[in-house]
Design goal:
The protein has 5 domains: 133 residues, no CATH class; 69 residues, no CATH class; 44 residues, no CATH class; 48 residues, no CATH class; 54 residues, no CATH class. It is 24% helix and 0% strand. The chain is built from 17 helices and no strands. The longest helix is centred in the middle third of the chain and has 11 residues. It is elongated and about 155 Å long.
């Protein structure tokens, strides 16, 4: 049904309820009226043709086809609870709509806050419900932002008139709300010590005690956080207590023997090596050390037998081979050595049996076969290419027939079946003999030429 022109006039000249009216309408359609509200509000100025809205024979029944696009016809879109309110709640004989609309929310709704929170209801309320929104955020614009436990406290705990909408300004000082807590505080006794103001110097808004204590002058971490106050403040005074570790831990420093802190003159700033959870394990920071390693580790140097540092006259600069995390494994830097390998490893040379280096007459230049990482897997390099050409790939035992004496080797064991040929071939060679050392004397590289 097309809206009649008189409806536009009705909106412009309509009326509103008194400011005490609420928006809620319950299950009643906007065109009807909830009889629980009392008699139907007067609408004597409405059109005289009642049938425009009512069905014949009943004042309480509204035409089903009755409709009105409030936004299109008036330019005012009804949203949220406003869209569900009965028309007569605003449009009646109590006064022009325009007059009350100019007053904003207060035109229809009583200000239960008594103007203490400003005139703009939308700062806290929406059109869906009266329940306020973003209360914690809004409180942040006051002198008392709500954080921690304060954000969970009911409004009336601080604002005594909150249940009836009264929010008078309060003193943001902690003691204004926590005077009773201050009076009960006995460990330590706040009143005796004169701690009667500025609670936030020590407390945070999540909890009064334990981890909630703000020990700003000396941050409490690890076991410090669980230590009783009296262990550091045994005199009952909480001012002037030294902050350095040694002031509390002198006994631990003096009794430490591994290593002996006193004898070595280690610094008394425990934090260089220790944490606040445990004394051990400690992480020693060598960065501050200026003396040579041996000044602390001479005993370890003298007692080391593999290899014997003193006998071999190894340098006392421990860092040449050792790191600061462990003594072993160590990385020995051979680059700085001037003596030959046997000067340090003669016993290793003499004790080797597979093969027997001494019996075989191997050179004592260990580097000819071994590297500085491991003794095993030595790679023997003949001074001559006897293991190349036709001799490549032979096993040592093919030529060195005495397992424990590599000085003994044979050529004729392989070439015995060729003696007649060799005799014929060497008939013009002066001093020729068909035996190993003669062969090797003429053919040290294994070649015929």
């Amino acid at each position: 049904m097309r809206p009649l022109p008189w409806i536009v006039t009705l909106v412009l000249m309509g009326y509103v309820l008194l400011a005490a009216c609420s928006m809620g309408s319950g299950p009643v359609d906007p065109q009807e009226w909830n009889t629980r509200r009392g008699p139907v509000v007067p609408h004597a100025d409405f059109p005289a043709d009642c049938s425009l809205c009512h069905l014949p024979g009943s004042w309480t029944r509204i035409r089903d086809e009755f409709s009105f696009d409030h936004g299109a016809q008036t330019g005012v879109v009804l949203e949220g609870a406003h869209a569900a309110a009965e028309c007569l709640r605003c449009h009646n004989d109590r006064g022009p709509v325009a007059v009350f609309a100019q007053r904003g929310c207060a035109g229809c709704h009583e200000d239960v806050h008594r103007a203490q929170l400003g005139k703009n209801c939308a700062d806290c309320h929406g059109e869906q419900t009266w329940q306020p929104h973003d209360r914690i955020l809004a409180h942040g614009t006051t002198r008392m932002p709500l954080v921690g436990a304060h954000a969970a406290v009911a409004c009336w705990r601080c604002h005594q008139g909150a249940e009836t909408g009264e929010f008078t300004g309060l003193d943001p000082d902690c003691a204004s709300c926590h005077a009773a807590d201050l009076a009960r505080a006995s460990d330590p006794d706040h009143l005796t010590l004169g701690w009667t103001a500025n609670c936030d110097r020590c407390h945070i808004p999540t909890t009064w005690a334990g981890e909630g204590f703000n020990h700003a002058t000396f941050p409490l971490t690890g076991t410090h956080a669980t230590t009783d106050c009296a262990e550091c403040h045994g005199d009952g005074l909480f001012a002037g207590t030294p902050h350095d570790c040694y002031a509390c831990h002198a006994a631990e420093y003096q009794s430490a023997l591994d290593p002996d802190h006193v004898e070595l003159g280690l610094p008394t700033d425990c934090r260089l090596c220790h944490g606040t959870w445990h004394w051990t394990p400690a992480s020693f920071n060598h960065g501050w050390v200026t003396q040579a390693c041996v000044e602390c580790h001479l005993t370890e140097y003298q007692n080391t037998t593999e290899p014997d540092h003193e006998v071999l006259q190894l340098p006392t600069s421990c860092q040449d081979c050792h790191g600061t995390n462990f003594w072993v494994p160590a990385t020995f830097d051979h680059e700085g050595l001037t003596q030959d390998c046997a000067a340090c490893h003669l016993s290793d040379y003499e004790a080797t049996t597979d093969p027997d280096h001494e019996a075989a007459g191997f050179p004592t230049d260990c580097a000819a076969c071994h590297n500085t990482r491991t003794w095993y897997g030595g790679s023997f390099d003949h001074d001559f290419p006897i293991n190349s050409g036709d001799h490549a790939g032979f096993d040592c035992a093919d030529c060195h027939i005495q397992p424990r004496n590599f000085a003994v080797f044979t050529c004729t064991q392989c070439h015995a079946h060729q003696k007649r040929d060799m005799d014929d071939e060497h008939e013009d060679e002066r001093g020729y003999m068909y035996e190993t050392m003669a062969c090797y004397a003429c053919h040290p590289d294994g070649k015929e030429d």
